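Worked example 2:
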Amino acid sequence: MFGVDLADQKRMQYSTCRKAKKWYKYLFWFCFDLAVVNSLICMQESPNHQIKTKKGKSIKKTQLQFRMALAQQMIGGYRGSRKRKIPSVVDNCGSAHWPIQFPKPSRCKGCTKAGRRHEVSIGCRECNITLCIKHDCFYKYHKEMLE
């Protein structure tokens, strides 16, 4: 009973269980917690995973340290994709998107997409991006946005 009670105590210390109306969801989180605790116990018993202090004394890794390292390994190098800001839709009279003069020139977004380098200081006030009128980027961008 000692091992089972100790495992249950460790499992409840940092539980990931959530209330669920479906029994299989609760079972999944229970099994997940059980697997994490079992791997923690195996790691603590393994002589290859002991942490050494400067004086040579071995210390067992805490459950919090183990769970943080496990989460970091599970996430890995994943980076969530940034969602683009959806431009506001033009109202009925089209007054929302008008070209304005920006104080500082920068690259035209339409020309950059087309592979040209063209710096302008004109752009859309509502979208807050620079678009040139010379290559009709302003019209193409907003036409593409509304489709």
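The chain has a mean pLDDT of 82. Residues 2-75 form one domain.
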